[in-house]
Design a protein that fits this description.
The protein is mainly alpha-helical. It has helices spanning 5-15, 17-37, 47-52. The chain has a domain at 1-37. It contains 3 helices and no strands.
Length: 63
C-alpha cells in the first residue's frame, strides 16, 4: 500500500475523487484476499522445474 501512495495522489489530482476511492478499495481487497490465501500450500511445481528436470531412471522400468 505504501508503494502505491504516489499513484493514489496522482490519480486523485488527475482523474478525480471517484478514481481514488475505487482504486484504494481495489488495492485493499486485493491485499486482504492475498493475505488470506497465503497459508495454503503450493499445489504444483513451477513449469520450468518440471521441464528441465531429467528423470534418474527410464520410465517405465524395463524387465
Amino acid at each position: 500500500m505504501l508503494l502505491n501512495t504516489p499513484f493514489f495522489i496522482l490519480g486523485y489530482t488527475l482523474l478525480g475523487k471517484r478514481f481514488f476511492v475505487l482504486s484504494f478499495y481495489a488495492i485493499l481487497v486485493l491485499t486482504v484476499i492475498t493475505s488470506q490465501l497465503e497459508p495454503f500450500p503450493v499445489i504444483t511445481a513451477p513449469y520450468s522445474y518440471s521441464v528441465s528436470r531429467k528423470p534418474s531412471a527410464p520410465w517405465p522400468p524395463s524387465m
